[in-house]
Amino acid sequence: MIRRLPSLTAIAGSVVAVAAIVAGACNRAPGVRGSAVARVIGPVDGTLANGDVRLSFRFEAPGQGDGPFPAFVIGHGSGEVRKEDCLGLAGNLLRRGFAILCYDKRGVGRSTGTYVGVDAINSHELIPDLAADMAAAVRFIRNRPEVDPRRVGLIGGSQAGWIIPHAARDAGVNFMILLVGPTVSVGEEIYFSKFAEETTTPLARLGGVLKRYEGPRGFDPRLDLEALDIPGLWLLAGSDRSIPTPETVAILDDLIAAGKPYERVVYPKADHSLRGTAIWPDIDRWLDANVAK
């Protein structure tokens, strides 16, 4: 998920793949914030600042309906992700009545800074840096007149499973959706991928592989997940070869049992891309229940 480009498996770990799987479900489901949106305001392109880093962004808002609108900042998966890679996901959210903001990852496209791939050793620094970029985007979008600052959330896939909870704590967002996002540490995910990605080893035989891991854990999202108290939805793949879904589910179930307002849905036959999986009915149901109209 976080090391190899441009192989198809690695690309599937990024928002590039997430955008591909969500692009097909363009019509919003009944019951989600009024009627479908026919046009949008924007796109508005520009830059926003996180310290010395300038992030190139694209902002859009629904073009009809009663604003200000709820909003999502879209987070990144692994690799050199650009704002154009978010278009499929952005379009579906716009049609559901949400304003959206996408941005080039730092050091990618028109964003300044230096792009560095995440590993177990550098993740203690890099994940907070990437989360700080996302938090800066939240602060920016909250000041847009089209956006309701009380209804701002985060969404993203794969590597964003580490970034989003940290950014949520930093920026104080209201809700979050994580597509095939891991709850295990960076080191554990890398170790699992070593045995699972680009192999045909039955996943059932890898059930205990993480118990053997004695290497560096790297960034661990559990501290952020334990500290947060906002609604969160995880959509996970039962045949994922990038993140260890059973261990991710076990952590989430522990947090849910402890009272955290989290929910998870596992699609047994889906892989890390979620391609061909009907995720939007679950997203629509969750949005109706957790994002105030």
Word description of this protein:
The structure is a single chain. By secondary structure, the chain is α/β, with parallel strands linked by helices. Helices cover 32% and strands 20% of the residues. The protein is built from nine helices and eight strands. The protein has helices spanning 8-11, 15-22, 87-95, 123-142, 160-171, 186-196, 222-227, 245-257, 280-290, and strands spanning 40-50, 53-62, 69-74, 99-103, 147-157, 175-179, 232-237, 262-267. The protein has an eight-stranded mixed beta sheet with strand order 1-2-4-3-5-6-7-8, with helices on both faces. The longest helix has 20 residues, at 123-142. It is globular. The chain starts with 7 loop residues before the first helix and ends with a helix.
